[in-house]
């Protein structure tokens, strides 16, 4: 019975491990597309952004273990949230550099692909920011937001659903999309 209670106390650590693995997978997948599929060459700037990205990625086990060991503490949410935001913003920087740098050759990329990748990168950043703000009220909801951000990125349908939501919101607030913000 003692071992079962010990395992039960490790449940938050196990959950943070699953969360960090899923987070690493989604970031690896995005990184793979930007650097291996879209970028047909590299330069020193892309190498430097890549190094920063990998440094931040290498710290995920640390921030996830802090989150798991101190799962009821707001500071652990803040550390993990800031870390997630930094990774997301670095990945966004890398994506922008690959897509728009005159030094990097890439294939023709549609507006929809650019919009989809922007959504996939920035939704976890937004959820992490929200989790940080909410942690002072509820650490459990903050945990849920981190999880929701990862689940969002694991499903390809979620981006289309979010895009439809944004399109509807744009139509509601501004009317028809005459400037082609949602054009394919």
Number of domains: 1
- Shape from CA axes? globular
Strand content: under 5%
Spans where pLDDT lies below 50 across 5 or more residues: none
Query: How many DSSP-defined strands?
Result: 0
Oligomer: single chain
Task: State the distance separating the first and last CA atoms.
Answer: 59 Å
Query: What is the string of SSEs from the N terminus onward?
Result: HHHHHHHH
Number of helices: 8
Structural class, from secondary structure content?
Answer: mainly alpha
Helix percentage: over 70%
Radius of gyration: 19 Å
* Biggest sheet overview: none
Architecture overview:
- The chain has eight helices and no strands.
- The protein is mainly alpha-helical and 184 residues long.
- It has one domain (12-174).
- The longest helix is centred in the N-terminal third of the chain and has 28 residues, at 11-38.
Short description:
By secondary structure, the chain is an all-alpha fold. The protein has helices at 2-9, 11-38, 44-58, 60-69, 74-100, 111-134, 139-154, 156-174.
Question: What does the secondary structure layout of this molecule look like, with pairings?
Answer:
Blueprint: H1 2-9, H2 11-38, H3 44-58, H4 60-69, H5 74-100, H6 111-134, H7 139-154, H8 156-174
How would you describe this structure in keywords?
184 residues; mainly alpha
């Amino acid at each position: 019975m003692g071992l079962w209670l010990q395992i039960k106390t490790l449940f938050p650590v196990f959950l943070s491990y699953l969360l960090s693995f899923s987070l690493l997978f989604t970031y690896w997948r995005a990184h793979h597309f930007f650097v291996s599929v879209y970028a047909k060459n590299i330069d020193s700037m892309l190498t430097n952004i890549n190094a920063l990205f990998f440094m931040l990625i290498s710290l995920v086990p640390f921030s996830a273990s802090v989150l798991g060991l101190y799962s009821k503490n707001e500071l652990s949410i803040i550390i993990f949230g800031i870390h997630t935001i930094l990774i997301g913003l670095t990945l966004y920087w890398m994506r922008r550099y690959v897509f728009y740098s005159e030094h990097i050759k890439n294939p023709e990329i549609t507006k929809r692909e650019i919009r989809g990748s922007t959504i996939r990168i920035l939704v976890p950043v937004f959820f992490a920011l929200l989790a940080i703000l909410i942690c002072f009220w509820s650490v459990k909801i903050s945990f849920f937001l981190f999880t929701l951000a990862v689940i969002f990125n694991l499903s390809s349908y979620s981006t289309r659903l979010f895009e439809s939501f944004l399109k509807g919101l744009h139509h509601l607030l501004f009317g028809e999309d005459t400037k082609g913000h949602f054009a394919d």
